[in-house]
Structures are given as structure tokens and as C-alpha cells.
Amino acid sequence: MNTLTIAWMALPFFAGFTIFILPQLDRYLVSFTAVASAVFAVKVFLMDSPLALQLLDSAGVTLLIDQLSGYFILTNALVTAAVILYCLQTGKSSFFYAQMIILHGSLNAAFICTDFMSLYVALEVSGIGASLLVSYPRTDRSIWVALRYLFVSNIAMLFYLVGAVLVYKAHHSFSFEGLRGAPPEALALIFMALLTKAGIFVSGLWLPLTHSESETPVSALLSGIVVKAGAFPLVRCALIVEEVSPIVQLFGVGTAILGVSYGFFEKDTKRLLAFSTVSQLGWIISAPAVAGFYALTHGLVKSSLFLIAGNLPSRDFNTLQTKPMNTALWIPLVVASLSISGFPLLAGFEAKMLTLKDLLSWQSIPMNLAAVGTVICFSKLMFLPHGNAQPKQLPHLGFWLAIGLLLGGLIFANAVHYELYTVANILKSIGIVAVGAVIYLAGIQRWVFNLPRMFEEFEQLTGVMTLVAVLLFWLAWSWR
């Protein structure tokens, strides 16, 4: 298994570099690599015990592959495969595929790290790869958005590196376990960077503009899997060092509420989906023990929603209300929206119920409110008019193959935790969806209020990161 693991880790980078030499093989190499990651994830689920690899004895540089890693790796494989299918008929260049598969490899590496130094390298490579994909159209706007993302990411990772050095200074090890007993400023700097990279809480307000302004397949990659590279180590740290778990869970609740609060007021479909990603990342880290399954279901549903949103007649909700979409597009849109709302018979139901059951007592009320808020946000999509569009408006075959893979995954994953299908859970889920839909129809759909975007402005992002670092320092100092 050790040799297989090393070969699997190296494969995406080998494929990416080969594409630069033999560009005519681009689609074959990226497809083979995505399938290989899916097969590896299945093998991880079949292992009897977790696999640990020690790379450097004295520095604590280690890799850990268990079921938590398996869920994130499988999400990476399926989202990447769906984006490949979507791009087959879009004329993307070999450079695009090469960057995408190198990004895929760096994310895989991040999902098996249990030390701060390996994670630093993986996150830096993923940040560069993601920014190159964002800037792919080479327009002034896309280049500005990519540079903005890269600047915020690099500033965050600079703080992260200082925090990692402080952990090493305290224990002579870069292992995640070094957070136990490390100075509060180490935790503050590392967690602030990870929160920023993942797009969590106010330090993640760079996310809505970046994800909504990117090309459709890039938005699907960013929201489906890239941001999870920052969320995964927070979950792993919370599971390894129990003392920091309350901090992670506190930010999870705050982020779940923050994202849906912004989503109420959005008039743009892609920005609504981006703020939903912020909220759903809060769901992932609010219950670390079951974070893997939630990350899988969110990755599948959010990628499909971004691919569908990119093929709607308009991004503007007001326009969509007067210009009905084709029913063939509306059906997968509703299926995906119901899944993320936690409706039964879709994997989102099990993810929501699993998370709600694993919450601490103080988390229950705000997270149930966040669940209702999610339904309100996605009622904007589910209640859009449809049926009058012309057949020529239907997307290409690659789109349908990608949507089939993602939504098929949601239906298949629905069988993983079938024991959650109790009468009480089903009634609770339907009740949450019904309450959210009624609130939307009774009042929210008539709101015309626009929230100010000053906290998303480039000039404010670094300042907000500093405030989050101060808050984290106080929390770390209080919980010592």
C-alpha cells in the first residue's frame, strides 16, 4: 500500500508535466488520473486500519490516510471528473487541463497531511494552480480576480508559516499534535490562515467575488473541492487535538449563519451559490467527526449547481423571473437544491441529519436555524419559472454527462447511512424544508434590500484577517 500511495500522489504531477510535452494526450491523462484517484479512494474505504507514513522522523513530517481522507479524495476525484466531462466540448487548451490536474494532485496531498510543513507546500501549490485557472480567460477582470485571490492567499500563508515555526520551536516537530501546548499565537496564526484559505467566517469574504466571477467549470472546482483544502486540516486538528475542537466548532456555527444571512439578500445566482459555499463550509467544520460525508455531498451538489447556473439565461434573479428557463435545466436544478436543503431520498438528507445528531447542545438551535436559512436561499432557485425556453438553448452533451455523474453520486451516496431514515428524521427534514419554503414565499421573495459589499473590498480583506487573528488569540488564550 505504501508504494501504491506514493505512485498515486505522484501521478497527477507526472500527468500535468507530460501534458506540457505531449499536449495531444491532455484529456486522456487527466481522465485517467481522476479515475485513479476514485479507485484509490475506494481502496481507502476498504482498508482495515488507517495508513500512516513517516517522512522525516525528527521533524514529525507525516501522512495519514483514513476514511476522513477517503471522503475528501473521492470528492476531489468526482468533481474533477465532472469538470473534465463538462470541458470536453468547450475547447479548453492543454494548459487548462495541465493546471487542473496539478491542482488535483496538490489537493490530494493536502487531504493526507498531518504536519504543518507538508500542508504548507500543498496549499501553496493549490493556491497558485487555482489562481492560474481563474485567470485562464486572460481578460482584465479575470486577471484582477486571480491576483486578488493570490494576494489574499499568500498573505494568509505567510502568517501560517510563522505559526508553524512557533509550533516547531515549542516541540521540535511540525506535527498537528504540536498544537497541544503551543503558544496561543501559533494557533491564532495557523487557524487564521486556514480559515482564510477555506473561505470561512468573515476572513473568507474574498470567496463570493472569486467564485462568482470565475468561468463556470472553474467555479465548480473552487466551490466543489478547492476550498476544502483549508477546511480539512481544521477538521483534522479538531480530531487530533480535542482542546481546539470547541474553537473550530464555534467558527463553524458562525460561518453557517453568516453565509445564509448574506444569501437572503442576493440577487445574483452565482453569488448566492458562493455565499452558500461559505455557509456549508461552516456545516462541515461544526461537527468534525462526520465532516467527511458532508464534504462529499456538498462537493457534488455545489459543483452541479455552478455548472447549471452557468447555463441559465441570466445570472440576475429579476431577469430569470421574466425569462423562464428550459424545464430540462430546471429539473436538475431542483434536485440539487433539494439535496443541499436536506430533503429525503438524496444524500444531503443524510449529511444534514448526521451533522445535526453530532452537534454539541449549544450548537443545535443556531444550526437548525441555518438549515431553515439554507432552504430559504435555495427556494430562490426552486421557484423560478420554467418551461417556455426553446430546445436550442439546451447545453452540450458534456454538460449532461457531468450533471449525470454528480447527481448520480448524490443518489448513490444516499444509501451510505440508510439507518438515518427514521420517521422522526424524515418528518424533521420535511418540516425544515416546508418552513423555509413558506418563509420565502410569504416574505423573503419580495425583499429588495441590498447589503453593502464593503467587507468584500480588497482594501478591507487584510484588516479583517487581522481582526480574526486577534479573536483566535483570545479564544486560544482563554481555553488554555
What is the strand content?
under 5%
Number of helices: 20
Average pLDDT level: 92
Number of strands: 2
Strand order of the largest sheet: 1-2
Summing up helix and strand content along with how strands pair, one would put the structural category as: mainly alpha
Q: Rounded to an integer, what's the Rg over CA atoms?
A: 21 Å
Helix content: over 70%
Order of helices and strands: HHEEHHHHHHHHHHHHHHHHHH
Distance between the termini: 39 Å
Q: Based on CA inertia axes, which overall geometry fits?
A: globular
Main pleated-sheet profile: 2 strands, antiparallel
pLDDT < 50 stretches: none
Description of the structure:
The protein has helices spanning 2-21, 26-46, 67-87, 94-110, 116-134, 140-171, 184-198, 207-213, 216-226, 228-240, 245-263, 269-286, 291-309, 317-322, 327-341, 347-357, 364-382, 397-413, 423-442, 458-478; strands at 51-56, 61-65. It is mainly alpha-helical. The chain has 20 helices and two strands. A hairpin with a 4-residue loop joins strand 1 (51-56) and strand 2 (61-65). It has a two-stranded antiparallel ribbon.
Keywords summarizing the entry:
480 residues, mainly alpha, two-stranded antiparallel ribbon, 20 helices, 71% helix, 2% strand, globular
